[in-house]
Design goal:
It is built from no helices and 16 strands. By secondary structure, the chain is mainly beta. It has two domains: 77 residues, SH3 Domains (SH3 type barrels, Roll); 58 residues, SH3 Domains (SH3 type barrels, Roll), CATH 2.30.30.40.
């Protein structure tokens, strides 16, 4: 059996600034996984779809705790592969990857957005020091898709993340 070793690099560096006198050195975020089936589904009756949307046709259902391989993220949807080789999309709120990068929010009134842009709808706010898991980042490397401890997923600008010692 071939062992696939994948290294997912959350591209670029996060330029993390608090205020003008407090700047954290940029840090590269990366994640390596061996054999890739290191994420799991958390929930019962979770649907696998053909597209990253509730309008995508349902092509299967997951068992709670089923191991999957994370392929890519499209906003708050994750393209996954099952051990039987089936590939499809699942809402990211049901995907749990134990080795996601843990970071803290730095700032008050920091907004969680629906897309990786200041034009994205504000879906929630963070509190200063709130812990989040980084799932992936935007193509330009400035925004991160994060999961709050309550399971909510959205985008935050990298300037408001501290991913080292807090």
């Amino acid at each position: 059996m071939n062992t696939l070793v994948a290294v997912i690099i959350i591209s670029s560096f996060l330029n993390i600034n608090f205020e003008s006198q407090r700047t954290i050195n940029s840090s590269k975020i990366s994640r390596a996984s061996i054999n890739n089936f290191d994420c799991l589904i958390s929930g019962t009756g979770v649907r696998m779809r053909t597209q990253p949307s509730v309008s995508g046709a349902v092509i299967g259902y997951f068992d709670d705790g089923e191991y999957i391989r994370e392929i890519e993220w499209n906003n708050d949807w994750c393209k996954v592969e099952r051990k039987n080789g089936d590939i499809g999309w699942v809402s990211g709120k049901y995907v749990y990857c134990p080795d996601n990068i843990g970071c803290y929010i730095t700032g008050t009134g920091v907004r969680m957005r629906s897309i990786a842009s200041t034009s994205g709808k504000i879906v929630d706010y963070f509190t200063d020091g709130e812990y989040v898991s980084v799932l992936t980042n935007s193509r330009d490397g400035y925004w991160c898709l994060v999961r709050k401890e309550n399971g909510q997923i959205g985008w935050v600008h990298g300037d408001y993340l501290s991913c080292g010692d807090y």
